[in-house]
Amino acid sequence: MIAFVVLAVLLASFAFYAYQALYSGNLNVQIGESKQNKILYIPKGTNFQGLIEILKREQLINNVVSFAFVAKIMNYQENVKAGAYLIEPNESNISVIRKLRSGQQITIKLTFNNLRTKEDLAERISEQLPIPKDTLLSLLQSEEIAQKYGLNTYTIGTIFIPNTYEVYWTTTAQELLERMYKEYQKFWNTERKQKAQNLGLTPTQVMILASIVQAETTKNDEKPRIAGVYLNRLAKNDLLQADPTVVFAHRDFSIKRLLNSHLSIDSPYNTYKYTGLPPGAINFPDISSIEAVLNAEKHDYYYFCAKEDFSGYHNFAQTLAEHNRNARLYQKALNEKGIK
């Protein structure tokens, strides 16, 4: 009889412990009214012990023993899946492990903008996803990969349209390229393609011109007018003479004032030397810059120069004489400020 009572007590104790281990809050334990969800990042190749170390390091776990107990009975210890997982305040072991075991990861927001080069892009993405910078760069520099999308290594970057995208944290470099190409195709709908055709440009050429417009001004309301200037020059097969393309050719973005010595560089990006558009974009143009080209102003301006008040806006001119007057005003302002 005593043995029966002892066994009953033991079974009851075990049942109580099991219930507590399964259903009591053990992950992201918080007290008070202001409770916040947290994200658990599990890198690829992480085993169960590695997961425990992550939970401890991020201070997401209260009782390791109970978590390991539930993980064992739920056959999770050998089934750790990489990903980003949402952990709610005071979430139970069973709830979290069900989530982790099924790979029920959340999407994260991937944002990139204000970038010039492929290196900049690869670095920005590697800061948000576990994609090594060199891995993405290798794909972007592969002629074979570029041809797959009907592009080349100069133009492959145009499929990356700056924005915020929802992606899985475990997205690979190749999967990201596929996703960006789908977003690129979605962006270039029938209406936009028709507008590009009306300008005598391909979508890629629009992107290249948009990158020049973006480099010329941060003023969205002025972008269509600047785009119109370059379209006027393209229509006459004249040199674009776009200063930002020369800066890009030098890969020296510290240049504030373009000198005659800069203009001698022999590069396909030097639009003072070669007519037409450069072979690729000189940055990653945002949607406002792309739309500015597609909806460019129709006018007779052939020149523009930064305003001498340093407002970020420009003076526009139809004739070289008028442009030279504007240029002298700006150069005088630069000299007065000691900008070289």
From TrEMBL:
It catalyses: a peptidoglycan chain = a peptidoglycan chain with N-acetyl-1,6-anhydromuramyl-[peptide] at the reducing end + a peptidoglycan chain with N-acetylglucosamine at the non-reducing end. Keywords: Cell membrane, Cell wall biogenesis/degradation, Lyase, Membrane, Transmembrane, Transmembrane helix. Pfam families: YceG. Its EC number is 4.2.2.29. One of its GO terms (molecular function) is lytic endotransglycosylase activity. InterPro entries: MLTG-like (IPR003770). GO terms for biological process: cell wall organization; peptidoglycan biosynthetic process. GO terms for cellular component: plasma membrane. The record marks 216 as: Important for catalytic activity. Functions as a peptidoglycan terminase that cleaves nascent peptidoglycan strands endolytically to terminate their elongation. Belongs to the transglycosylase MltG family. This is Endolytic murein transglycosylase. It comes from Raineya orbicola.
